[in-house]
Design goal:
Chain lengths: 468, 468
């Protein structure tokens, strides 16, 4: 009948428009290895290693500013903890770095409306000295507006750069809206500014400033550089809108010293095949100094270590799993660079890190999509029950594994939901209570599944004969 | 038919069980005066006075600690603003008070896990001096547990009182869970404690401490008394749970001086009948010193003043509307006491204040329920379209109008949704961005409707003859 034919035609033509492929043309089904599923689900339901690590590190050490005595205590804690968990070859790989530390800080509107604002120095900020500096505010709504300004508009003044970063699940605002922090101080210095304050690179509305690193490049002399909280930046904009000259007294006492020392803490689960390429995973041990570094990045070392420990509990992988708690990531990825250098000859099956908080992983991507499609499909199948979608357009990311990847290691990225990450990132508010234990376990489950798949197979440990 | 009869019986018997009254027995319908509805809806849709006041006060003055030069500037701002809005009889009624001010602050765990915590002194805290004090922490999970402890357990130590206040729409946790702040310092002092820190009386998880007032009573000598943030209190509990002695270095520099001065700012819309009892409304002008006092209580003076201004724009009320911006509420209701004393002979038709933030009003109560049921029903009818329910069990509340009510004024209470109030209350986070302009307008609309109903009727101003 005509109506039947029309129906069939509609079906055939409508399907592609809806993005639906014929079942006949689909690739063979990817099934999840029951061993992998069991490990994944066990971690999802009952992992406690990750919580224990991040709770212990943030409680018993607290903040761990790179190159300081606190970070050294954190390394001692890491060695003790990783050894107690049964990892092999636990050791510190030290390296040198310049150390920046924070001193007294404050910002005060002198006129027209006297009041205190909340500010924090950016990493490698110049120092105002304890007496502070006083200058008129000159306001720009982007780093480009500052670049376009004549030197005469900036010289001797305190530059203020505003912006309006919005939350994004993939964290995509951090690149663009982070420019005032990364480039602003150098540009302001080259134009002769007395100092610079920026609106915190953050998406919250709390009186907690977001610090973060910046460097003075292009021969720019260090000037005091700080971040106002978001509410204080909005307050400053309201004050500026009254149209009167705004004078600020700014105090940012800070210190930079050469000859500091940091280190990477390395631990392994030795593979059955010592010659097989290694799986490299980790996060960074150092933190900024105002919170306790719970989401940045206590969570990352906890998640990846817990996943490795879940594998260890199940037996011995074919490939060695190397867990690294990187040192001195925040001031510029010193640990990642040191690791790549120290292990230049090593061969890697994969390199990946966790450094975007502790909220749910929502998507993943890996170079294996092109080089090892079967493993890619196995990852896709094993991660989908955790709600994780494949991201075919993913690119390598991560400061700590960046140099290792550039040197040739294949990469994997398990992307966390960053919607609330920049509410907390680099603020005093980065504390343990921001971690949701249920979402933390989902992270561990995803990494456990990924390591299990990429490990080359896990065999039960041979039973050791009791000594006689 | 039997089934019909059964149906009728079920209907008759089920109705009371569901709380449904027969329509025949309901009181006569209460209809909203169209003039009142028009004023209410105009405020709801387009009031800008409240936003302008709270934006202006928090921007151009900022914090307004009671008795300080900042509060004096706020009074100047208030007089200027109320005069410009067209209020009559704008003046300051000064009074004396002791002034407490905050100095340097800090808390540091010395052992077993060295780290800094975030603390703020409570009002009228004793001072540690700039060098601070060091002592072992003794932990109690309630103020009653502290009361029950032998002096020997407390003597020479730093008391820490924990609690677990939860958010509540009616703010009911503040009484019970506020006890550690109000009573803790005195009890600790009487038992010989070196100092006391409490978990902030707050429901948030940010690194912003909640200050607030306390007094040393019963002959207790002032000791340093501070509030740790909620995340820091939880951190301290985790550290204490490790079972090792915990030593804290505490610095709370603060100063109390006699001979301070504050004042109430009073403004009026003169009623057509100068002998009619007055409508008294307002909020408090002073704030704590760390935020800009947006929700506590810039919003309150803004809401009540905007509502009065909406009446003024419509014409002249029969009864005088008196708006008071009370001084020095936070340190103990000095302004409310001063007003009641200065106006001891005045007769009031109503007294009410707005001092619970700027979120939606969700219920109301008033003494008029008993003394003037017709007005009560008119209020009920006019407020219901704003989502406001009557609260037959309400009691008088409010520090500023308390003494006036005790002296005989009938009271009205328009209760705001306090679910998030104690996230922000008395913290550095009390800033303008916490106010939702839409909810602020709902507040103005409710107060406008209430004032219109209680005003005795608004008549258009007689047209003034142009001067020749």
């Amino acid at each position: 009948m005509k109506s039947h034919l029309l129906g069939a035609l509609l079906l055939a033509s409508a399907a592609p428009a809806l993005g639906q492929t014929s079942i006949a043309t689909l690739p063979p089904p990817a099934l999840v290895d029951p061993k992998v599923a069991t490990l994944r689900d066990h971690a999802l339901e009952s992992d406690h290693y990750a919580w224990d690590i991040v709770e212990g590190l943030t409680t018993e050490v607290g903040q761990r500013l790179a190159g300081t005595e606190a970070e050294a205590r954190a390394r001692d804690w890491a060695v003790k903890t990783l050894t107690a968990l049964g990892f092999s070859n636990v050791h510190v790989e030290p390296f040198d770095m310049p150390v920046w530390t924070r001193g007294a800080e404050g910002a005060e509107i002198v006129s027209p409306f006297p009041q205190k604002l909340v500010v924090a120095a950016l990493g490698y900020s110049g120092s105002t000295g304890p007496e502070g500096v006083t200058g008129e505010i000159v306001h720009f709504d982007s780093v480009d507006a500052l670049r376009a300004a004549p030197d005469s508009a900036v010289k001797g003044k305190i530059v203020f750069i505003d912006h309006d970063m919005m939350p994004a699940q993939d964290g995509s605002g951090y690149g663009q809206f982070g420019a005032p922090r990364r480039q602003g101080p150098t540009i302001a210095s080259l134009k002769g500014a007395l100092a610079i304050v920026i609106r915190s690179i953050g998406t919250d509305h709390h009186r907690n400033p977001h610090t973060g690193v910046q460097y003075f490049t292009d021969g720019a002399a260090p000037i005091p550089a700080g971040a106002l909280t978001v509410p204080d930046s909005e307050q400053l904009v309201r004050i500026l809108k009254r149209g009167k000259p705004v004078v600020m007294h700014l105090t940012l006492v800070s210190q930079k010293t050469a000859g500091g020392r940091s280190g990477n803490v390395v631990a392994e689960i030795p593979g059955r095949d010592p010659n097989a390429p290694v799986l490299l995973v980790g996060g960074h041990l150092d933190s900024w100094d105002q919170g306790t570094g719970a989401i940045d990045d206590g969570a990352g070392v906890a998640i990846t270590t817990a996943a490795a420990k879940q594998i260890m509990d199940a037996g011995r992988p074919l490939r060695t799993i190397r867990v690294v708690w990187f040192g001195a990531e925040e001031p510029g990825g010193f640990g990642g660079t040191a690791l790549a250098k120290a292990h230049a000859g090593d061969r890697y099956a994969i390199a990946g890190e966790s450094d975007f908080g502790a909220d749910r992983i929502w998507r993943f991507g890996t170079q294996l999509m092109k080089t090892d499609p079967a493993t890619y499909r196995a990852l896709e199948a094993a991660l989908a029950p955790l709600g994780i979608v494949k991201n075919d357009k993913a690119e390598a990311d991560g400061t700590d594994v960046d140099e290792t990847i550039k040197a040739g290691a294949p990469w994997i990225s398990l992307g966390q939901d960053g919607t609330r990450y920049f509410d907390i990132h680099h603020t005093p508010d980065d504390t343990l209570d921001k971690i949701d234990p249920v979402q933390l376990r989902q992270n561990v489950a995803a990494w456990t599944a990924a390591l299990a798949i990429m490990s080359g197979g896990i065999e039960p440990e041979p039973k050791r004969r009791p000594r006689r």
